[in-house]
Each structure stands twice: as C-alpha cells, then as structure tokens.
Design goal:
By secondary structure, this protein is an alpha+beta fold. It has two domains: 1-40 and 137-173; 41-133, no CATH class. The protein contains three helices and eight strands. The strands form three sheets. A three-stranded antiparallel beta sheet has the order 1-8-5, with no helix packed on it. A three-stranded antiparallel beta sheet has the order 4-7-6, with no helix packed on it. Strands 2-3 form a two-stranded antiparallel sheet.
Length: 173
C-alpha cells in the first residue's frame, strides 16, 4: 500500500499547525513585549479633574499639583515623560510656562491663572497626551537595539520552519 498521500497530508497539517501557532500566538506576543521594552508608550486624552484648583470662576489656585502618571523611582531620573500636551475642557491646547508648569520627571503639572485655564465647562477637566516608559523599558540604547532583534529572530525562525517544511514536503512528493 502507498502511504505517499498520508505523508503529504501529515506534512501539510504539521506546517499549518506550526505556522498558525507560531505566527498567530507567539509572534504578536513577542512583538508586543518587544515594543514595551524598546518604545515609549503613548497615552491620548487622559482626563484629569481640576475641580480643586479653582477658587472661584476667575481664580486658579496655582499651588495644586495634578498627577499625570505615577512614576516609578527609576523613571524619575532615567525616563521622564515626553511629548506632553495639556488641553483645557474645551480642547484648547495650553502653553507650558504660560498656562501651566510641568514637572516631566515626576509627571505632575500645576495650572497658572490665565484665561485659557479658567474652566469653560462644568466638568473642570484637563486632557493630557504624553509618552511614558512602561515597566521593563530599556533605558540603554544598546539594550533597546538588542531587544529589537528578538522579533527579527522569531520571524526568521518561522521562515526557516516553513522553508524546511516545504522542502521536506516537496521531496516526499
């Protein structure tokens, strides 16, 4: 009896399972983890309540600090926030050192008493966009470069698996 058809189907199933498992399950996880190790993460439209900062309809208490993000100890010195944009409740972009003061290292800001910071909505919110370092972020450029190789080698391993499987399948046929 000829087993050639069974071997061909078995090889195709093995390749299919290998590709689906590696490409479908492992590669996205590998690349997501690699992204957290090598790239700052972006946050858009984080709302921060500033209700406590208003003394009345036209006066802002400039001594109150609002927390954007809770920084770990190592992030204060090695990875401060970047690309910080603060907008008032109406969506108008506020100017650093004119409408607010920013402490990037500690991820805090305080409003200054200007017309742009006076609340124009009942919610008394500000909206903050920023980039931060996720836990596990490599502060060393060499470490980030090395971590970026992880995904490359995973993709090359998948390519090698497929190439060898197709070659084996072609020889059996």
């Amino acid at each position: 009896m000829n087993n050639r058809g069974q071997v061909n189907i078995g090889m195709i199933i093995m390749l299919f399972i290998g590709i689906v498992v590696v490409a479908g399950a492992f590669l996205p996880t590998i690349f997501n983890t690699q992204n957290q190790l090598t790239d700052k993460q972006d946050v858009l439209n984080q709302s921060v309540s500033t209700v406590t900062g208003y003394l009345d309809d036209s006066d802002v208490n400039e001594s109150i600090n609002y927390s954007i993000y809770t920084q770990s100890t190592w992030k204060v010195s090695s990875c401060p926030l970047t690309s910080v944009v603060i907008r008032n409740g109406a969506g108008t972009v506020l100017a650093d050192d004119t409408d607010y003061t920013l402490d990037e290292a500690n991820a805090r800001y305080s409003l200054l008493n200007t017309t742009k910071t006076i609340p124009v909505t009942a919610l008394n919110l500000t909206y903050v966009d920023y980039s931060y370092c996720a836990d596990g972020y490599n502060t060393s450029s060499g470490g980030r470069t090395t971590a970026k190789l992880i995904g490359l080698f995973a993709a090359l391993a998948l390519l090698a698996f497929v190439t060898l499987g197709v070659k084996e399948w072609a020889e059996i046929r």
